[in-house]
Amino acid sequence: MSFQAYLDNIETKTGLTPRQFVALAAERGFGPGTKATPILEWLKDDYDLGRGHGMALVHVITKGPQIGDTHVGRSGPHGDNSDTLWLDGAASNPNP
Question: How confident is the model over 22-32, as pLDDT tens digits?
Answer without folding.
Answer: 999 999 999 99
